[in-house]
Write a structure and sequence with these properties.
about 70 residues; elongated; mainly alpha; about 0% strand
């Protein structure tokens, strides 16, 4: 389970930095988009809270039906 948290933290941080780099904020009044550290931190936070459950859901092996 720890590997899912680490993987999702890396994906979230990468997505946060990509958001800063490609979208950003032209005027400089957006506190999250103007700082790469903040956008990467928020991406890491969202990645850790959202992605591990999604990974576990898709990698879980189906439970075989019990026959009497």
């Amino acid at each position: 389970m720890l590997k899912w948290y680490v993987l999702s933290a890396i994906i979230g941080a990468s997505a946060g930095f990509a958001y800063y780099y490609f979208i950003g904020c032209v005027t400089g009044t957006c506190p999250i988009q103007t700082n790469p550290w903040l956008s990467s931190s928020f991406g890491t936070l969202f990645g850790i809270t959202l992605l591990p459950d999604l990974f576990a859901k898709f990698t879980k092996k189906p439970v075989e039906e019990q026959q009497p």
